[in-house]
Design a protein that fits this description.
By secondary structure, this protein is of the alpha/beta class. It contains 10 helices and 10 strands. The protein has one domain: Spore Coat Polysaccharide Biosynthesis Protein SpsA, Chain A (Alpha-Beta Complex), CATH 3.90.550. The chain is globular. It comes from Donghicola tyrosinivorans.
């Protein structure tokens, strides 16, 4: 079973090398696709330097910034694997073990899909046992191949909510894998406190534009019911 890893990136020059190195090092990933979404910094240069040291990946570039959903749609169209692994490009603390833990429930047939629960996910997500907007997921390519144009046209962060809808509609078995050593980079560290706070508010607006708050709560409840038991915890 071939696995394609898709990494969308926009102005992640300070972080892309760490994520890309781990993906390139992982023996179970057959194909690595990085979609640069119109970066204006040295993201592409840093990625190519990493590739020269750790191995080949496929680079696809958008001429202008189109948003994460569009970048993921481009990656899906280019992918050839049976399974798709999505990795955000701003992760800190990611290792080979975390990727293995995320893909194992699916490749071994215990679950149909899986997603991560990172250390700095909101406390509420930890208490509920599911991060319904996690960017780190693995699922069959066949599940998404007919939906690339829909995905491309989603507003910013509506991607995860749309993926949840597909998972719930098909009642897919879900594995939630805790990543206690991994964090996503807070937006205030990338953009400054004011711009970071505005970006967080825009993210919430984008999600609720895809589904309203009531539907979001229903999604969380449904995903919790679809989890395989017990919840998997990965630790170094």
């Amino acid at each position: 079973m071939r696995i394609t890893c898709i990494i969308p990136a926009y102005n992640e020059a300070n972080r892309i090398a760490e994520v890309l190195k781990v993906a390139l090092d992982h023996p179970s990933l057959s194909e690595i696709i990085m979609v640069d979404d119109g970066s204006t910094d040295s993201t592409v240069a840093q990625a190519l330097e990493t590739s020269a040291l750790y191995g080949h990946f496929q680079l696809v570039r958008h001429e202008s910034n189109s948003g994460k959903s569009s970048a993921i749609a481009t990656g899906i169209e280019e992918a050839t694997g049976d399974l798709l692994l999505f990795l955000d490009s701003d992760l800190k603390g990611l290792g080979l073990q975390e990727i293995s833990a995320l893909i194992k429930p699916v490749t071994e047939g215990d679950a149909d899909v899986s997603l991560s629960l990172r250390r700095n996910a909101p406390r509420l997500w930890h208490w509920l046992g599911v991060d319904y907007i996690s960017g780190e997921r693995i699922m069959p390519r066949a599940l998404l191949s007919a939906h690339t144009e829909t995905i491309r046209n989603l507003r910013g962060f509506g991607l995860e909510v749309f993926l949840n809808t597909l998972w719930i509609q098909q009642n897919l078995r879900l594995s939630v894998v805790e990543w206690p050593a991994v964090e996503s980079t807070p937006k205030w560290q990338k953009l400054g406190r004011l711009r970071g706070a505005l970006a967080d508010m825009n993210m919430l607006a984008d999600m609720f534009a895809t589904v309203g708050p009531t539907v979001a709560l229903r999604q969380i409840k449904a995903l919790r019911s679809q989890r395989i038991s017990p919840r998997r915890r990965f630790a170094h």
